[in-house]
Write a structure and sequence with these properties.
14 helices, binds L-homoserine, Rossmann fold, Dihydrodipicolinate Reductase, domain 2, single chain, 11-stranded mixed sheet, elongated, 443 residues, 6-stranded parallel sheet, Alpha-Beta Plaits, alpha/beta
């Protein structure tokens, strides 16, 4: 069969990202057509509510409410799934893949929840599933891992993967905004998910971390073996501690891989990052990812991690790859062989346990203001051989309680968990202790 000379693009969903793709693909069409040697036909958009007011206007003849009209159109070769969610998105994705089409997706929840099924359909029908836009917005991290850094095995991938969290933490830390106001701003700027709890509770970052872990190590991290924490409980004392001791507060995704013992750990949580580390300087909506590869050393990529334009840039990058593959210029997607090799690699990896994850910790405690209370707390640390590095006590005169913030030397998650369990039992500890990990770039 000869390669098609006109490539039809269909879009499902016309929210922030869908509109960005339409706008920029229209603007860059002539340039891309001459580079790729094909005609690009932006054929149709399926959307739920045609009456809704949108920044990007398109002719009525290009709009349908019926997604099947886009997916089943024989002249649509590339289907961009930009509706989000997992129910309809999964049905539409599989329907297109079962016809051997290319699906370009920004949907991390879908890939994370149904990756094996999606790639089975890719293998069976010879289509492609491209997902650059699902992780870190405009940063081409998927391409970097698969292609540019293919020579490497990664013992550490650590990144700021949620633009909304980073925007909130930056605005709270640098400009004194409240959590609620900073979140509202992120929503208005189009960074947040339709349900922003996915952002602030760490789920969005977990989906992205899970995709990177699979791509780098061939294994999907199960939810019950992944540490997932959000940023809701961060307060002024934590920001103050960070400022005094030279840290930035960041929401990190950390994927560690031990090649000797063959384990992998995946965690997403707020952490204190030393100001000297490049990730501490990734602020606002930006995402940043440091990959420590055995050949290249540490490489960091940074850029806008959310918002219509940045994500559209990644979607269009995938469309260009798809066109190149469809017209016989190259095969860019994950091929059947590539997928088989990845799965084989994953079979050898086990999820690491709590003794294997080691870092310094930060803890904020609300304590009864009475002689001897601190001693009771320190005894627990010493019983579990957890060594304290720094302490600050804040006085709240006449309130009967005080705040203590402290940091530890590196210990295992298991030891710290044991300390926390005992602290919770003390009557003098008045609130749930608040724990942060401290990222140590040298470890
Ligand atoms: N809500 C996501 C974020 C958008 O804030 O990073 C991109 O996935």
């Amino acid at each position: 069969m000869s390669a098609p000379r006109t490539i039809g693009i269909g879009i499902l969903g016309f929210g922030t990202v869908g509109q960005g793709v339409w706008k920029h693909l229209t603007d860059k069409k002539a340039d891309l057509e001459s580079r790729l040697g094909v005609k690009i036909d932006l054929r149709k958009v399926a959307l739920r509510d045609p009456k809704k007011s949108r920044a990007i206007k398109i002719s009525k003849s290009k709009i349908t409410k019926n997604a099947y009209e886009v997916i089943d159109d024989p002249n649509v070769h590339v289907v961009c799934e930009l509706i989000g969610g997992t129910t309809k998105a999964k049905e539409f994705t599989l329907r297109a893949l079962n016809q051997g089409k290319v699906v370009v997706s920004a949907n991390k929840a879908l890939l994370c929840g149904h990756g094996p099924e999606i790639f089975k359909a890719v293998r069976k029908h010879g289509g492609q599933f491209l997902f650059e836009a699902s992780v870190a917005g405009g940063i081409p991290i998927i391409k970097a891992i698969r292609e540019g850094l293919a020579a490497n095995r990664f013992e550490l991938i650590v990144g700021i993967l949620n633009g909304t969290c980073n925007h909130i933490l930056t605005r709270m830390g640098e400009d004194g905004l409240s959590f609620a106001d900073a979140l509202k701003e992120a929503q208005e700027l189009g960074y947040a998910e339709a349900d922003p709890t996915l952002d602030v509770d760490g789920i969005d970052a977990w989906h992205k971390a899970s995709i990177l872990a699979w791509l780098a190590h061939g294994k999907w991290a199960p939810a019950n073996r992944t540490l997932v924490e959000g940023i809701r409980n961060i307060g002024p004392a934590d920001i103050d501690f960070a400022r005094r001791f030279g840290f930035a507060l960041k929401h990190l995704a950390v994927i560690q891989r031990n090649f000797e013992k063959n384990w992998m750990t995946v965690g997403v949580y707020p952490a204190l990052v030393p100001n000297r580390d490049i990730l501490a300087r990734v602020s606002g909506v930006n995402n940043g990812i440091t990959l420590r590869g055995d050949v290249v050393g540490a490489t960091t990529l940074a850029g806008r991690g959310a918002g219509g334009d940045a994500t559209a840039s990644a979607v269009i990058g995938d469309i260009v790859d798809a066109i190149a593959a469809l017209t016989g210029n190259s095969k860019q997607g994950l091929s059947g062989d590539d997928l088989v090799a990845r799965e084989k690699q994953g079979l050898e990896v086990r999820m690491g346990d709590l003794d294997e994850i080691i870092s310094p910790f930060y803890l904020r405690l609300s304590l009864l203001d009475k002689a001897g209370v601190s001693e009771g707390v320190y005894k627990i640390f010493s019983k579990h051989k957890v060594s304290i590095a720094r302490v600050i006590q804040y006085e709240h005169p006449n309130k009967g309680r005080g705040t203590v913030t402290l940091s530890t030397y590196p210990v295992s998650e298991r030891k710290m968990d044991a300390v926390l369990k005992e602290l919770r039992r003390l009557k003098t500890v008045l609130e749930e202790p608040f724990l942060l990990r401290i990222f140590n770039p040298e470890s």
